[in-house]
Specification:
By secondary structure, the chain is α+β, with helices and mostly antiparallel strands. The chain has one domain. The chain contains 3 helices and 7 strands. The longest helix is centred in the middle third of the chain and has 12 residues.
């Protein structure tokens, strides 16, 4: 699968959070508007379109709808191949289960 760098300047003109400067993504995901919108929210710190989920099923509903919830106002989360993954600059990483991952205050949907 071919990957490319999606540079922050391609989706945000004046980021408040400028790290990471790019994300390594498949060509298809780099064009995904839902993913770009979630990244834009993180890097501008504008979460007006998001809310804290009341129950965990809201997180999975968001994932299944093709949107990307945000974890700890820092990571975009996706669901690929039956695994919950979070996005870092070097690509998608498997999200470990921890007590924090079950706290609804750490999520935005």
């Amino acid at each position: 699968m071919k990957k490319r760098r999606l540079y922050l300047y391609e989706i945000v003109e004046e980021p408040i959070l400028s790290y990471p400067a790019w994300y390594l993504l498949s060509t298809a995901l780099a064009k995904d508007e839902n993913l770009q919108e979630s990244l834009r929210a993180i890097h501008t710190m504008n979460f007006e379109a998001y809310h804290y989920p009341r129950v965990s099923s809201e997180i999975f509903t968001t994932l299944q709808s093709g949107c990307y919830p945000i974890y700890k106002e820092h990571y975009v989360v996706g669901y690929f191949g039956g695994k919950v993954m979070y996005l870092e600059s070097s690509g998608w990483k498997k999200m470990p289960l921890s007590k924090e991952s079950f706290d609804m205050q750490n999520w935005l949907v």
